[in-house]
Amino acid sequence: MAPPAQAHRSPSPSQPSGKGEVSDLKSQLRQLAGSRAPGIDDSKRELFKKVISYMTIGIDVSAVFGEMVMCSATSDIVLKKMCYLYVGNYAKVNPDLALLTINFLQRDCKDEDPMIRGLALRSLCSLRVANLVEYLVGPLGLGLKDNNSYVRTVAVIGVLKLYHISAPTCIDADFPPTLKHLMLNDPDPQVVANCLSALQEIWSLEASTSEEASREREALISKPVIYYLLNRIKEFSEWAQCLVLELVAKYVPLDSNEIFDIMNLLEDRLQHANGAVVLSTIKVFLHLTLSMTDVHQQVYERIKAPLLTLVSSGSPEQSYAVLSHLHILVMRAPFIFASDYKHFYCQYNEPSYVKKLKLEMLTAVANESNTYEIVTELCEYAANVDIPIARESIRAVGKIALQQYDVNAIVDRLLQFLEMEKDYVTAEALVLVKDLLRKYPQWSHDCIAVVGSISSQNVQEPKAKAALIWMLGEYSQDMQDAPYILESLTENWEEEPSAEVRLHLLTAVMKCFFKRPPETQKVLGAALAAGLADFHQDVHDRALFYHRLLQYNVSVAERVVNPPKQAVSVFADTQSSEIKDRIFDEFNSLSVVYQKPSYMFTDKDYRGPFEFSDELGNLSIAAESADNVVPAQGVEANDKDLLLSTSEKEEIRGATFNVSGYSAPLYDSSAASVQSELAIISSTSAGSAPSSSLAIDDLLGLGLSAAPAPEPASVPPSLKLNSKAILDPGTFQQKWRQLPISLSQEFSLSPEGVAALTTPQALLWHMQGHSIHCIASGGHSPNFKFFFFAQKAEESSNFLVECIINTSSAKAQVKIKADDQSTSQAFSDVFQSALSKFSV
Amino acid sequence: MLQCIFLLADNGAVILEKQLTGHRVDRSICDWFWDHVISQGDSFKSMPVIASPTHYIFQIVRAGITFLACTQVEMPPLMGIEFLCRVADILSDYLGELNEDLIKDNFVIVYELLDEMIDNGFPLTTEPNILREMIAPPNIVSKMLSVVTGNSSNVSDILPGATASCVPWRPTDVKYANNEVYVDLVEEMDAIINSTKQFSLLHARFRDGVLVKCEIYGEVQVNCLLSGLPDLTLSFANPSILHDVRFHPCVRFRPWESHQILSFVPPDGQFKLMSYRVKKLKSTPIYVKPQLTSDAGTCRISVMVGIRNDPGKTIDSIILQFQLPPCILSADLTSNHGTVNVLSNKICTWSIGRIPKDKAPSLSGTMVLETGLETLRVFPTFQVEFRIMGVALSGLQIDKLDLQNVPNRLYKGFRAVTRAGEYEVRS
Lengths: 840, 427
Known about the structure:
The complex is a heterodimer of chains A (840) and B (427). Chain A is mainly alpha-helical and 840 residues long. Among the domains of chain A are: 475-563, no CATH class; 721-837, TATA-Binding Protein, CATH 3.30.310.10. In chain B, strands 12-14-10-8-24-22-17-20-19 form a nine-stranded mixed sheet, with no helix packed on it. The two termini of chain B are 46 Å apart.
């Protein structure tokens, strides 16, 4: 990074070159210093202005420090302010000269005018020179007792500044208890607020060394203090209200009455003109009601309108920050915002980062009733001048198609995109059609007809080209020209820059070969040869692998390359819900804007309270980051134990499909591809060699479960379960609330099972092999909690299970709810037998 | 908590720097920021919150001036942004407008203001009335005087009394000879108008307005010139249409909760009493019917504008603006009313003004497409501006404004105006 170069960039024609002007100023100031002529203040003011303007544009005017101090003896308040400003700026680099200013600042601290007293005190504390702290204590003590609230306000922050310069001096002077007294008794709300912020910072920094300080810090979020602050909240300035609300968000009320009292008291804050206050209030509401599901929903309903108003009023910058928060709420509870989808329509003039957020929200809130309108709106954007947004909106249409059950109209739209003759539209649409086909193979005929008419010459983007090639391979039996298109693509092997495309080409040629051997044999040879000669390692390896596989046994090769596929039900989410939860915990913070939890973007140096203790000033933040340290460090350990909810599970499932349908990998994640490669290898060994690795074993098991008969022995004949059962979390929750408990039992776990239950995932995979799917899990050793579901094979009758496993006592408590009560005993037997086989 | 505030000129040069905590933020952050902005194309495209390698940066742009704030710790993002907006508002309030020269001429005042507005990185006083009592704004009279006499003082001799006041937004001892209070309803109509798609053989797209979304965002602005400590109540004839409301801190919550009455002790002078939203309006005052037909490399465009629902008052300042798609090489556009301008960046502006009684304004012309392009595939969005004085299109009506302790001479005035906000017609 270049050193500051603004001085040279300034457009001002009267740009001083430096030295000459400074020495000129110096002599002029010297002349004025002693003079008492009338009107002297005005000439001083002109000179001071000049000095300050040089300072502002980055010229070093520290040379005139002495003269400035000499001139500072004046009653003119503007001169004083300029002088304070100058002194504050240069004292740190000139500690010796700073001593000169102490005298006049101390004198000003006793001035008659409260404004001057305050200003002088503020400047005195802003000198930040360690060896001058002894001069601070006296004026600060007086300032805290001053009868003017302005001076007290300044003095309180002064105490904090003193603490940062020299913590022992501040503690020894007994300032914190004084502040506490002021906080609880001062009539001026700004003094109270400043005390609160100063104390929060001081005590959280002291807490690690002093028992008392940590007790005091705890006391800040105790009932009396919180209630005292809440009762006065309307007196506070808007910023102080934010501070108090941040504190309240940390308070844990005793019972629900307290929660409702606080929420009733704060409800009108949702209508405050300041967005920061509104968001802080929302944070309090969300945190208070986290454990009360029903009320939490009501809170969402209540905060919806204020948030939407905040988005539509205010400047674009404010809108964006609010929108980021709205985004996180929409992602958590899309159904609540489903009727407000029109608010997420993009306006022509909005910056693209706003449009992007809105597109994501539109995608999330799409449901049966509004899909048609949302997709229509998204199609408008596809013709947008802004190409990245046009692309995003096509992707959004695809995502909605993948979410919904009724996709007829959407598929038509997507196929229309293919005919729009815009290369980027075609490219995006191709990728989507591929994903759609993986989920809804029944549409292959409609799609293939359109895709077949697209000339591969017109598709240049690697992702789109790969998608097209995948479809050529997958549906080669339906596309007349498939082998010949593949042939021409293979001929241009050398010109193809993307390794991804070449990988897909290899696989597609293989697939095509198994379906139409006579036409493809020649191409296959050419492709394998080209692949073997490829300089890209992955391409080379895959070609070699196919080559050897074919040599080994053609039918095994076919089983590997072209296994019977099952439609993908859910694609993996890009951001795990665990991260979303974590961001949610940090609501109303920068995390939300960045869409990353703070441990992912905050520099380690600034997370801990000590790293910045001598640098930084504010209090609430320090307190907060002190709290953040623990989760941040615990992340590694917690990651595996945290609530593992649906999307994570879907990721596991998605990875499975990668095994069976790996020819069109969706994942860039190297881990997933490694796993799938491993699985391929173990499946080529036909499962004869028992794998040592648990992960491989599980993946293999899953891979096999896609085969027609999923381990029939494990399912008693009395009850057949649907191995492809699907239930979304919303429905699960709804059913769980509605249905009565039909069975409640306790099972014992085998010791091996207990040993294998190091992470919840192991059990999930195992149970999935028995057609019992997990919807959410969590807990730490020794206690784990799982929610499972299963469906009957023939009819859509659901079983819901809550299973609490205690590994130390090797017991599992199981609660079963069922649509059809009569079969719950049978299901219970299935469940028990599945559980007992865990890790056996 | 903010650590530093910078004001940057439109060429990236630092106009002003205010360090807020002991941690000194180096100016080089501004260079990083400016490079970042340039790499994004223009500053409107870069996000209001940016992570630089060393700091987190909040930025807002007002009148070409970039307000930049840096921090290294987690904090509520809206606090940073709201505060910067407040700084910008107050500066432009003090200086009359915002530009680089004005800030440079008055940077002492700017420093003074920042000093009172934020201490140690935490926002303090942002109420304009209190600030005004602490730091007198530079007015034209004093500027004239200072030119004539060479003597100036922008500091009021009054001490900051209001900081201790129980009504912090109102200065003490306000006196007026004539007591006046004006209430304005200022509404903005946000609308998106689409059409049902009809593809003809010639790839023509006929569009008649289908209202996709129509909402009103409104503000009640009050200009209060009353002596002493007036206590006002304002009520609406039809408060039930308001979907969501936000209030100035002076508004008491209970009367609104129970009776939808605004009860407040107002700040002195001009302020925004409340803002509101009215959802799901069913009609718009004017229609815009664009029609684009393209064939064999040329595109015919015709746009008709007229009154759909007469609001009863004159609709004026009608302006239609749209960006020609990039694939258009040249455009020849004429209108039967008003003036048409096509700028070099392909932004076309059609200023209509008022709609004449005898004819419907229309714009027509031909556009030449890029070679190789037969038909137009990207369609422009028309952004419409208009203004209607004397009407609040949401239908909101003020019932009455009452004042406790009515002074001798009191004048109450009510006005309303509706403007187009984000009013778009897609072709």
